[in-house]
Write a structure and sequence with these properties.
Mean pLDDT: 77
Strand content: 5-15%
Number of strands: 18
Shape: elongated
Largest sheet: 6 strands, mixed
Radius of gyration: 63 Å
Helix content: 40-55%
Low-confidence stretches: 370-375, 536-542, 583-603, 628-661, 691-738, 763-775
């Protein structure tokens, strides 16, 4: 089988999938020497210019620095320092826009040059073979060298691999249009590049060194062949021009025929690749002790008067370089960092040059025009032509990647191997719908990286949490063990029998007693509160509980509860007394003296006394009305006779025990008095009717006229008027019939007698049932008898008054009949 070297010697190379042939446009700058740019007025130096972590700042604002002096320090392999491109003063450290497709800002160092360009002290080493591999790697790391072909991977990581390397490939293809920086660098500095190749060869000791370069660079090919003519293991491989043959995986496949699998580093296949500009920087750092502070940048485009390659200091603003090349399109500035295929637009011209910047394009409006229009381009819907998949060098499915990127379907993007995309832009170049596919891929990659960082942080937090949990558990176990040991030691001391042991034992017993007392106090307070809530009127029990609490525990909480309950009971009793006073104030004036003379009692007994006093007052009023007939008045019954103070006092304490017996006796006495009153009232009424003088002159007939219901109502009305003090009139009676008038008068008298009987009955129905003491039942019976006799006497008086009125009425009727 033909070997790789034999195929290379014959010029028979492999092919990769896809690829395109865009217009090269290299003629603008390939025939002009590299120019040196002036020192700008201000340098903007981002502290992170590579793939990895930013270094730690070792300077501050106001410091004066020398050319080549480190501005940051690295502590990890993926962290690189940055250096001062010239001498000057650090005027600011702030966040500014950096060269990135996102246009985001990061921390940058603002250096104001002093114009002297003073170098720091350097140590020249003409022969690198006098240095060990560790020293060489240290020099490369301290110089801050990263991949200058565009990826920005730290170089010391690549060249320090421990894997067995078969092929060291030097990438000089520079396949992207417009860019000629590597071409001119090879033409002018091929010896230095060769020194860098030898240094890497010394570190990796590969079997073969292959320099891949496209056939559109004849001068650079000639320079490399002359420089490597006497070196046997270095082969200059001139490959056909095809974009993107300068990609790492594509160039490996072209030269060796090996395809790097997805997610696999080339070093695992025994292959390491370095850019020619990186080899130049390695030689300059190891031999001349010069850090990476400048690089060759292609400034091209039809909008420039003098497009050319320039040695630009790291941190130089893009606008400063384009002005030196005669940028004329000042109104519509459109600047691109990188080539037309893999570059990205800049937000403004103050974005600085960094270590991976190889080109700045200032195209005219014709160069960036859309195929659909001479002035603008517009994205339209995908027509599913499949051209993007045909030209993809990584053999991906660009249209599906774009759909998943728009849907933010990160798992599907991972399945479609998004990170195998080298962002060459071939798919976007051939897309007839003008879809910026590479921009979708870049955004999706950034989102996935951010999510991975968040997942890593979450995992670290989880690990810290689990570690803390275990630590707390261990501390808990340790404390428990410590307490156990201390308890055992204390127990041993207490059982030793010494004086100190007895004192300690008594202290423990006292502590236990205090704990038990506190628990008993808490339970007692709870039970007392519950009992007091169920029986709020039991003041004696509440006071007893309160006294017990004060004697036992002197607890402030228990005392406060007891005081609150006692206050509540006092308020309730005072409210009842106030209601009784209000009731007494509303009584008639005649009963005020009796109500004031009677002692104040509580609740039902006071109401009984007030009712009795009211009845007595009405009785005296009736007696005063009949004083014109010289009827002796009823003797006044004092309040002490109605309800004695000692009885009232005793009733308030023994009411619940004797209530039932007292009620029964009082009801019996009231019933007897009521029956006697009814009998007496009926006898008086019959006597009045039988002795009425008006009936003697009346005409006797066998059948007496009955009184109708209407007449009875009128009679009742007359009786009511009489009670109110109004004299009876004969207007309501028919004067033409004397007999009828006499009958009406008799009926009126009878009705009055019945009404008096009802009143006396109501008086006898006084609720004496509330007087419940058995020793006072005799007084109650006497009281009932006195009430009954008073009612009988009042009935007799009323009958006499009715009889007199009837006589007077009969006499007046006789006179009127005689005159007629």
């Amino acid at each position: 089988m033909e070997s790789v070297i034999e195929r290379i010697q014959r010029g028979n190379f492999w092919q990769f999938h896809g690829g395109i042939h865009p217009p090269e446009q290299k003629f603008l700058t390939c025939n002009k020497p590299i120019a040196s740019a002036q020192i700008p007025e201000q340098l903007i130096i981002p502290i992170r210019q590579h793939i990895g972590q930013a270094g730690d700042l070792i300077i501050k604002v106001g410091d004066k620095v020398l050319k080549g002096q480190a501005l940051s320090a690295s502590d990890t392999p993926m962290s690189l320092p940055v250096h001062a491109p010239t001498s000057g003063t650090i005027t600011a450290i702030k966040s500014m826009a950096i060269p990135h497709p996102s246009g985001l800002s990061e921390t940058c160092i603002i250096l104001t040059p002093d114009g002297q360009d003073t170098w720091k002290q350097r140590h020249i080493c003409p022969d690198f073979q006098l240095l060990s591999k560790a020293q060489i790697l240290e020099k490369i790391a301290n110089a801050g060298i990263s991949g200058m072909g565009g990826a920005g991977f730290p170089t010391q990581v690549k060249v320090s691999t421990l894997a067995k390397i078969d092929y060291l490939i030097i990438n000089a293809a520079e396949c992207e249009p417009y860019i000629t920086a590597d071409d001119l660098l090879i033409q002018e500095h091929s010896p230095t590049i060769l020194d860098g190749i030898k240094i890497v060869d010394h570190l990796l000791t590969p079997k073969h060194i292959l320099i891949g370069i496209e056939d559109n660079k004849p001068k650079a090919i000639e320079a490399l062949q002359k420089a490597t003519a006497d070196i046997e293991n270095i082969k200059v491989c001139v490959i056909p021009t095809k974009y993107p043959s300068g990609g790492e995986k594509q160039l490996i496949q072209i030269l060796t025929g090996q395809e790097v699998p997805s997610g696999v580093l080339p070093s695992s296949l025994g292959i390491v690749m370095q850019n020619v500009a990186t080899c130049f920087a390695i030689a300059d750092a190891v031999i001349n002790d010069t850090p990476l502070i400048k690089r060759v940048v292609t400034v091209s485009g039809q909008a420039l008067e003098k497009p050319q390659n320039i040695w630009a200091l790291i941190g130089t603003p893009v606008g400063f370089l384009t002005n030196q090349c005669g940028y004329q399109n000042s109104e519509k500035r459109h600047l691109i960092m990188g080539g037309p295929m893999m570059g990205f637009s800049l937000p403004h011209d103050q974005v600085p040059v960094i270590k991976s910047t190889n080109c700045i394009l200032a195209p005219s409006e014709i160069e960036i025009a859309s195929p659909f229009s001479s002035t603008s381009s517009k994205e339209v819907e995908c027509i599913r032509c499949g051209q993007c998949a045909d030209v993809c060098p990584a053999q991906l499915l660009p249209q599906e990647l774009q759909w998943s990127a728009k849907a933010k379907d990160q798992p599907q993007l991972t399945k479609l191997n998004l990170f195998d995309c080298i962002e060459c832009g071939a798919c976007a170049y051939v897309c007839p719908s003008q879809i910026p596919l590479v921009h979708y891929y870049r955004v999706a990659k950034a989102e996935i990286r951010q999510q991975k960082l968040l997942d890593i942080k979450a995992e670290k937090a989880k690990v810290r949490f689990e570690a803390r949990k275990l630590r707390l558990e261990r501390e808990k176990i340790a404390r428990a063990e410590k307490h156990k040991i201390a308890a055992e030691a204390r127990k041993a001391r207490m059982n030793s029998g010494t004086t100190a042991a007895k004192s300690e034992k008594s202290a423990v017993a006292d502590a236990l007693a205090r704990v038990k007392a506190k628990k008993a106090q808490a339970s007692l307070s709870t039970n007392t509160a519950a009992n007091t809530a169920d029986n709020p009127m039991d003041t004696s029990a509440a006071s007893t509980v309160t006294a017990a609490q004060n004697d036992n525990s002197k607890s402030q909480v228990a005392n406060a509860i007891a005081r609150a309950k006692a206050k509540k009971l006092v308020q309730k009793n005072q409210a009842k007394i106030d209601s009784l006073d209000t009731l007494q104030d509303n009584e008639s004036p005649s009963s005020t003296s009796l109500a004031q003379a009677a002692p104040v009692v509580i609740d039902k007994k006071a109401k009984v006394a007030a009712a009795i006093a009211k009845a007595k007052a009405k009785k005296r009023k009736a007696e005063a009305a009949s004083s014109n007939e010289n009827i002796p008045a009823e003797p006044t019954v004092e309040a002490s006779q109605i309800l004695k103070p000692d009885v009232i006092a005793n009733e308030s304490t023994t009411e619940e025990n004797d209530n039932e017996a007292g009620n029964k006796k009082a009801k019996v006495a009231a019933a007897i008095a009521k029956a006697k009153l009814k009998v007496k009232a009926k006898a008086d009424a019959d006597a009045i009717l039988n002795t009425e003088p008006v009936l003697e002159n009346a005409e006797k007939t066998p059948n007496k006229t009955e009184i109708t219901a209407t007449e009875i109502i009128n009679i009742d009305h007359l009786s009511e008027n009489e009670d109110n003090g109004e004299p009876l009139t004969v207007n309501a009676i028919d004067s033409s019939n004397v007999d009828r008038k006499a009958k009406i008068a008799a009926a009126v008298a009878k009705a009055k007698a019945k009404k008096l009987a009802v009143k006396s009955q109501q008086t006898s129905d006084i609720p004496l049932s509330t007087i419940s003491e058995s020793k006072e039942s005799e007084d109650k019976r006497v009281l009932a008898t006195q009430a009954a006799s008073a009612a009988n006497k009042k009935a007799r008086i009323a009958a006499a008054v009715a009889k007199a009125k009837a006589k007077k009425l009969a006499a007046s009727s006789d006179k009127s009949s005689t005159s007629e």
